[in-house]
Amino acid sequence: MPEPPPFPDELRGLTCGAKTRAGTRCKMEGLYGSGRCKLHGGLSTGPRTSEGKAKVARNGNAPKRTP
C-alpha cells in the first residue's frame, strides 16, 4: 500500500463547526486531509471527469417521475 500524504499542519487543531441537530457546532477534530469532517463531510464537489459531466447533463434532460 502506498504511504498516505502527510496531514496538513494548517488543519491541526481545527474543528468541524457544522451545525448539529441540537443547534450547537460540531466539535469533531478528526478532519480528513481535505479539511472535511468524518461525520459531516460537506457538500459534494460535483462531477470532475468529462464522462461524469456528460452523465449529469443527460440526467438533467430526463422527465420528472410522478409518484
Commentary on this structure:
The protein has one helix and no strands. The mean pLDDT is 78. It has one helix at residues 50-60. It has one domain (7-57). The protein is flat.
Name the beta content range. under 5%
* Helix residue percentage: 10-25%
What is the 3D form? flat
Q: What structural category do the secondary elements indicate? A: mainly alpha
Number of domains: 1
| Number of contiguous helices | 1
Total strand segments: 0
Q: Which radius of gyration do the C-alpha atoms yield?
A: 18 Å
Low-confidence stretches: none
State the separation between the terminal residues, measured CA to CA: 47 Å
Run of helices and strands: H
Strand count, sense and barrel status of the largest sheet are: none
Average of the residue pLDDT scores = 78
SSE layout:
Elements: H1 50-60
Short synopsis of the structure:
With 67 residues, the protein is an all-alpha fold.
What keywords describe this structure?
flat; 67 residues; mainly alpha; single chain
